[in-house]
Write a structure and sequence with these properties.
By secondary structure, the protein is an alpha+beta fold. It is 28% helix and 15% strand. The protein has two helices and three strands.
């Protein structure tokens, strides 16, 4: 029954232009440069890796083993690629995890 009702979500899809706007205001909205850099990296990784928020963040400490950690990220500078291991997601019912590879386009955002 609920699926027959139209969605009432007011959230806008994140587009490249909206992402640029978000990244532009981070230095003003964040407490320091570290926090600004952290959010920039998280937002860009989520956007270009087609990730859900729940795949890179947690709401309770009991779920912290599911969040992306430093050991889950592999940067290959020579190939211009980034590999991120997602430990669990909404669609990963078996809990096996998945590795996402993102290649550089050579263009700045």
């Amino acid at each position: 029954m609920q699926k027959s009702k139209p969605s009432t979500s007011t959230r806008l899809p994140i587009t490249v232009n909206l992402l640029r706007d978000i990244l532009r205001v981070l230095p003003v909205a964040c407490k320091n440069m570290y926090e600004s850099s952290l959010f920039t990296a998280a937002f860009m990784m989520a956007f270009f890796g087609f990730m859900r928020v729940g795949e890179i963040t947690v709401t309770t400490l009991s779920l912290r083993e599911r969040v992306v950690s430093f050991d889950d990220v592999l940067f290959d500078r020579s190939a211009g690629s980034l590999q991120v291991r997602i430990r669990g997601s909404k669609t990963d019912q078996g809990g096996k995890g998945q590795t996402i590879k993102m290649n550089s386009t050579g263009k700045a955002l």
